[in-house]
Fold these 2 entries.
Entry 1:
Amino acid sequence: MAMAGAIISLIGAVFLFLGALGVLRMPDIYNRMQAGTKATTLGSILFLLGLGLGHFHKVCICKTIILVLFIIFTNPISSHALARAAHYIGIRLTKKTVLDKLHEEDREELV
Amino acid sequence: MKKLLFSFIFLYLLWLLLTGTNTQELLLGAGVSLLISLLFYKKLGIYGEFRVSLKAFIYAIIYVFVFLGALIKSNLDVAFRVIQPVIPINPGIVLVKTTLKSPLARLILANSITLTPGTLTVETAGEDFYIHWIDVKAADESGATEAIVRNFEKYLEVIFG
């Protein structure tokens, strides 16, 4: 069981690493947020579950499940708040961007 | 009554996960959960949005698995993109519309969209969701709605009245 937990934790760590790589390599804040949110969510979930399995004990696993639930509920909200704030203070999207419906709408309201 | 029941179930499940199965603690937890549910009865409007039926319950369980599948797929998608020499992206912010009425259902939908492949909810205004899409496949509203929202919406429609 400790072995299975270690392997699951390792997979989680790989996802966290790829998330960090994404944050470094992506061209603008919104794409970085994409890499950051998704990879950290699954990475942390797997890491915590692996930890719970590694120290196999009923209470321990239940507590990691609670942590996982809170991560699933809070992680997307925080990234949504950051992306929204970034858009409203006018941080530009990368030059590769093909369309920005939200910005068009803002303009219409201002005119 | 429904509000009270849902509030009690959620609080008690949380208590069970935290404490485990000791008879004294089980009883105390039930008492405290009931007391809190009764004290805050007027503030529990959000639980009234659940639909109570066997079908809704089954769909809720299916939804969890659909969501977990989408979460794993989105991680593999991100991993696939970041390890390539030139990152293959075609990003943009698209507008999608949801038919869901309940605020809690909309919250869950927005969160699910953020955790699914290549999409991030930037702004919500009523039924309009502005989604940052890492690889825009459909620029128009109906096409984007079909691609991003429909898969979750059909389950949430059943779970929330």
Entry 2:
Amino acid sequence: MTWVLGCVVALGLWGLVYPVLIGTLQEQDSQQQLFARFRSQLSQATAPIGPTAYGAPVALLSIPRAGLRDAVVVEGTGGAELEKGPGHLRSSVLPGQAGTAELLGRAVTFGGPFGRLDQLRAGDVIRLTTGQGTFTYRVETLRHPGDPLPVPPAPTQSRLVLATATGAGWRAHVAPTTQLYVDAALDGTAVPAANSPLIAAPSSEQVMGVATDSLLLLVVWLQLLLVTVGGAVWLSWRWGRRRTWLVAVPVLLALAIGASTAAAQMLPNVL
Amino acid sequence: MRRLPAALAMVALTTMLTTTVVLQQAPAQAAVAPDAGAVTVTKTVARTHLASDGTAVEVDHRTVTLTVSQTNALRSRQPVQVTWSGARPTAGTVGDPNAPEARQQEYPFVLLECRGIDSAAAPLAQRLRPETCWTGTSRERVATDRDTGFGPWRLDRYEPAAARTSRVGVPTPFPTKCDPSYASGERWVHFVSAAGKDYAADGASCPSVPPESAIVDNASQPSNTTYAVTHLDGRGSTKFTVWTSEDNASLGCGGTTKCALVAVPVMGISCDPAARSLPAADRPAGDAATRATRTCEATGSYQPGQPRIGGSEDVAVSGALWWSASNWRNRITVPLGFAPLNNVCDITGGGNSVNVYGSELATQLTAQWRPAFCLDSSKTPFKHVQLGEPQARNLLQVGTVQAALVSDPPANGYPTPTVQAPLALTGFAVSYVIDDALHEPYAKLRLTPRLLAKLLTESYPGITPVRDEYPALSHNPLDMSQDPEFTALNPGITVGVPDSAAASTILNLSSDSDVERALTSYIASDPDAKAWLDGKPDPWGMVVNPSYTTDPSKPGHLVLPVDNWPLRDSFEPAKYDASGVNPCLQAAPSPILPLIAAPTARLSSISLAMQFATSSAQLVCQTVQDQGAAGSKLTAEGRQTPGYRFVLGITSLGDAERYDLDTAALKTTGSTFVGPSDASLAKAAAVLSVDDKRGTWSFPHTSTTAYPATMLLSLAIPTTGLDTHTAHALSQLLTYAATSGQTRGLAIGQTPPGYLPLTAANGLGAERAYTLAAAQVVQAQSGATLLPSHPVVPAVVTTPGAPTPAHTPPVPTGNAAAPVVGPVPGALGRTPPQVILPTPQPAAAVSPGITRAVSSLLAADLFPLLALVSVVAFLCSLVLGRTRRLRVATPGSDA
């Protein structure tokens, strides 16, 4: 009985620790790799200026007030992309282009890059670097559900919308219940949008979207985990406990992280 | 995830319903809207001779009640159901009531279409009289008497004196081509055309006839003149085909010309042999008088109900004298109201009209909608150019046409942003004319997909030479009427029919069509049909024609579904028919089974064949004169003999309703059989599943109550690249289609039977909302697309603060879920992406809406819950550990 309760405690703690701590490590790792890749793309002028592959870097985002410095924005806003950093909604134009660009980011897990958006005030600077140059936006409003949508920008203007999850009080950084949108207008004129068609974003890529694509993957991971646990029990009979611990723990940890990554992709994308 | 329980529920439901329920199609009358104007008239008719002393002697009188199913909004070639009771039973009956020789029946119930107003007050030119009634041949309007010269019509007490003379209506000069041998006793009833031309009087030929009656062969449609049979109980019924000036310009009904259906219950001539008031020359005398009186007062040489065997009927009671005053005064006139003629829009001038290309399924719908546009100056008229759906789609994709009426989307999606706006839920029907063992039309045919597969695959030999010479089919039943599967399903149909070739096939389309795809999908969805097509014999041992096998291990096997049903059999028998002689085929041998199948390019041709029970099997070798040289060619078998008919064809539901065709109930996923009706279409509407990937709704073959041959009729229009005029006109059409066009009825602008209107009550609210939204998107031409959203998918986020590049104004959607516009999410997976062009939106002055909230239980409660669970479990283990330690400490508990 104690054994079962211990497992429950371990699982619960793992559920808290993984997305917040290990997830953050994973995000930082992804950011480093993406930054290196995007830097070279910028220098070679090969950075994308239109729709590109899921997970590809498309912009650098700096929001001094929210503690973001050169965060790499990736293409796509599914759960998997947002584990790497802020994501660009595929049905919107890229930042700096005429029209409305929309970026989504996580508030709590995987580094929570957008966790401090609620500290922004009107007039704050948001700086974005894409393959088309550096663009400075100024925050207009912070918007919550129920507020009126902003007037669409003029044909030569650009608007940036940052979206994430938030909540009241302590919930804001642990258990968000609502959404936060930051509307910002571009200083100066926008560059024309790429002449390629945009792509409709499915519901799983909208704010609070949930994708169940990785369900199968999760099942596979869990099966592996189960087999490994069974193997470890068998080994402990043959080899004794200590040696088994030595061999099994790294394998189990790796499998647990794999399973957790798959499970975390089914969390709401901006959590 | 959500689909799994739904699918399980569906499977459970299906198995539950599999056993018992058998749904039959609704009665034909139920489909006719209240504005059809059904009419019932009762009239007392009598035959009363005038004795020599001047007293009236009543021989017979009857009270006849006549009902006509529809007298309003009639269209070209439309059949109306005519039923009557109380009439005198017909004697000396013939099989085909539309044949000219049917006039020789005794006491027939004659039905004619006549031009004019039946009132003595009307001016002669507009009055309805025998001269304005249509008959197919001149023999039905000319009477001669070789015996005494005093035919019964000359003794008719009700004829005016002028009409009782020797030669009435005989043209002068006498037509040179006519036989002038009758010196006396001749009566001609002229035909006067709508243009005022008197055909009998023109004398160009003998007799001169209007052009519409020139061709009388069994391949063309028969005359609508009907000499119907009254049964022994005084009742009878028949379908009367109403003609407009489009079918018969000489009769010229429709438009401003009034016409009526005239029923003449033939009672026989009321004789006045004494003819006191007439001059001596018009009075029979002596022996002639006796014989003339006997002929006039005859009551029939056949027993009621007895079939005609020779030419010895009593003329006085035959249908040939329908025009005589005695019969004519007994007539029941039912005025007919016509829908605007099809050419009404050509007359008003469709100069700037837009063309809509595509599906023949829409024919009846567009025919009723079109006048509502061309007669309304505020609307831009449109024209429906009928094309196969795949062809229309191709033309739309390359930009040749601006709008395509289709059912399915293209396999790989449209290359440019396009909306597919639903117009109505309709489908195809398996129409048929089959007479039962009592030689009456069989009204409740049931068919399975396997039977359809047998007909389509030419697996019945059809003719005996094929059965005898073609080993692959030699053990199969000769035709469907002899198939045990068919007879078990449809008891009461004679096994074996005279025209076994026609009974071995189904008249189908030869062109590419979405109907073929729906038909073959239906067949392929049925496990029994599929197994049979794969080569497994049916329980009675019938096997598939090897040329049509779908067995994947066979080279060149057929893969279903298809857009075009192929003609694959190439067997050529040594003998071509039972007698072994067919000069055409002997001279030029060719595969026989495709000739029997004889598919046609148009659904409308199939409706025509079904309306008149025409067999299309190309087996008749006809001698033709071509510029003096005699040749021969294969032609269709033509009309079948009433009482022994057996033809089937694929028609549109709209045509089946309009031409009042009998339609088969088709087997569903379970063991139920469902015929087309509003109810079964509504059931189909309920199971339509939204398919965002294809941008439309699809009809899964999962329901046991839905009509299996249901198809959603849509209008595909690109949302970019149209000029303003076209965009506006098409947008108007869509708005109309989603609103006032969806009233069920037969009037201009309404939705005729056979099409389930797009209303929320019919379960088509989401489709209607899509069409309304599509109208806006088409008007805007901003390159936006629409995703059909499923009503049960919960509302999802609007793109906050980002009026997306292709944003449309809010659309009134009623209580249905609004279709998603542009990049707003639907149930779309990651692939393949819908394409939206990034057209910058002109600045709007007002906020486009409110930021919407999305609630996520997972986000709100996951981490607190995990923490709570951990803490609780930790505390529990602490408590548990303590009690255990306590127990260990207790002496004796160790044991």
